[in-house]
Each structure stands twice: as C-alpha cells, then as structure tokens.
C-alpha cells in the first residue's frame, strides 16, 4: 500500500461526513465561540492518540507475539464490520452526553475520530512495513487534516449536501471501505497459507 492509498483508507475509516450529524448534535447546545475551541481541542487530542498508536502499536504486537497475517485478517474483519455500519447505519444518539454538557475526549476525540477501527488500521500499517513510518505519518496527517477541515466547516458541508447527501456520501464511502477490507483480508489469508505451505 502506498502513502496516498493509506491516507484514503484512513480518511474513509474516520468517516468525517458520516460523523457530521453527531458532531453537530453534541455541540449544538454550546455557545458558538466556545464550539470552535472545543472542536479544535478534540481534533488535536485525537491526532495525539492516533500518532501514539501508530508508533507504539508495533511494540504491543511484538509483546503479544502476534504475526503480521493475524493483524491483516483481523484488520480486514474490523474494517468490513465498520463499513457495514456505514452502509446500514443504526438509529439512536451515540453521544451519551447530557444536554449542555461539554465533551472532553469522549465521544468526539474517542471514538468518533480516533476510533478502534482507525487505531487498528494504524497498527496494521506499522506492522506491515515498520521501515515506512514516515510514509504512514504523512498518510495519517493528510487524512486527519482533511477530516479536520470537514468537521470545522460542518455547517457549510451540511448546507451543501443536506441530510440525504450526507447519508449517500457515507454509504458510498462504506462501499469503498468494504473493498479495501476484503482485499486486506485476502492478503492476510494468502500470506498465511504461503507461510503454512512453506513450513511444510
């Protein structure tokens, strides 16, 4: 996977367009001047957590003695499940905050931006090619930057796309993510059988 393919994958997993309604719902009861500060703070928290997992995730896998094929297969399954939720979203309020309560780390930074699937994808990238950490850092920074712009100008995107447009975009991104997930899963299975036959 090249740098920009990784950036696209991470952007799709972060799903800023799909998260727009949640962000707007969480922040609507907060003063507009305070709202922008909170959003920037949560985005920076998420970026720090994402980079932490990118650079320390490999050490965790080495400690647990988990092979690359296992991470690839598990990552593919996780991405596939996330993609299904994007295509067939569930109803309900995911914020879990009382009206007027100011979010801190949860739910905007975690799990809306730095969610389990994004963290798993970063660990997967670091595990597949630990010598390309600069490339993965660029990919993460690019995908985070685009997501941040979309979320910071959430009102503009919401007016342009509308509710139906946001739903359509999220489902389209989900379909693309399904293809990435299946390819990741197939790569992991192929490498596993190659190692298994080689060992025999």
From TrEMBL:
> Pfam families attached here?
MarC
Do you know which InterPro entries this protein is assigned to? Answer: Multi_antbiot-R_MarC (IPR002771)
Entry membrane topology: Multi-pass membrane protein
Membrane-spanning parts: 6-27, 39-61, 73-92, 104-126, 138-157, 169-186
Record localization? Cell membrane
Keywords assigned by UniProt? Cell membrane, Membrane, Transmembrane, Transmembrane helix
Q: Name one GO cellular component term.
A: plasma membrane
Family listed: Belongs to the UPF0056 (MarC) family.
According to UniProt, the name of this protein is UPF0056 membrane protein
Q: Which organism is it from?
A: Alteromonas portus
| Taxon lineage | Bacteria, Pseudomonadati, Pseudomonadota, Gammaproteobacteria, Alteromonadales
């Amino acid at each position: 996977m090249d740098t920009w393919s990784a950036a696209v994958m991470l952007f799709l997993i972060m799903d800023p367009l799909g998260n727009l309604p949640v962000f707007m719902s969480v922040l609507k009861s907060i003063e507009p001047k305070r709202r922008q500060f909170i959003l920037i703070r949560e985005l920076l928290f998420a970026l720090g957590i994402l980079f932490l997992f990118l650079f320390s995730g490999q050490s965790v896998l080495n400690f647990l003695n988990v092979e690359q094929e296992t991470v690839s297969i598990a990552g593919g399954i996780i991405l596939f499940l996330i993609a299904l939720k994007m295509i067939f979203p569930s109803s309900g309020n995911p914020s879990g905050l009382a009206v007027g309560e100011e979010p801190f780390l949860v739910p905007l930074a975690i799990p809306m931006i730095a969610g389990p699937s994004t963290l798993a994808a970063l660990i997967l990238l670091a595990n597949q090619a630990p010598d390309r950490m600069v490339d993965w850092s660029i990919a993460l920074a690019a995908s985070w930057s685009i997501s941040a712009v979309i979320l910071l100008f959430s009102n503009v995107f919401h007016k342009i796309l509308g509710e139906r447009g946001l739903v359509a975009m999220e489902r389209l991104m989900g379909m693309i993510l399904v293809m990435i997930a299946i390819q990741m899963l197939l790569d992991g299975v192929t490498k596993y059988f190659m190692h298994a036959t080689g060992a025999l």
